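Entry for heme C complex. Fields follow.
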Amino acid sequence: MRKPLLILAALALGTTLTTHAKGNVEAGKAKSATCAACHGADGVSTVPSFPKLAGQHYDYLYQALKDYQTGRRKNPIMAGQVENLTDQDMADLAAYFSKQRGLSVKY
Ligand code: HEC
């Protein structure tokens, strides 16, 4: 009787941790509306000056957003975009864009 409960508890804990650490795709989608203006629908930019976000690695996207916010990576446009984002927002956005496909789309 005890084993199934333990497994359930472990699964529940695992899910919670994953959601927090990796961000939530659905929440990211909801937060990504403003990004689409430059980075294109679903992160598939059609303008060379705006990088494609679709299908980039989660860690890369998350780190880029973090770096714009801390000023480690300097870009006036993106600095303004991430100014008011929380850590969770950045994780959600990174999760969302990393799950999109479209890197094969050519400019
Ligand atoms: C007004 C236009 C604009 C908007 C809106 C915008 N971005 Fe950007 N973004 C840029 C530009 C320009 C760059 C390239 C900056 C650079 O060279 O570092 C960039 C770069 C990035 C990068 C780095 C990509 C790479 O390949 O290194 C990420 C990640 C990113 N943006 C995420 C977002 C997210 C998430 C949002 C929405 C919250 C957003 N951007 C909204 C213009 C925009």
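NOTE: The pocket of heme C is lined by residues 34-35, 37-39, 49-51, 53, 61, 64-65, 73, 75, 77-78, 81, 93 (CB under 6 Å).
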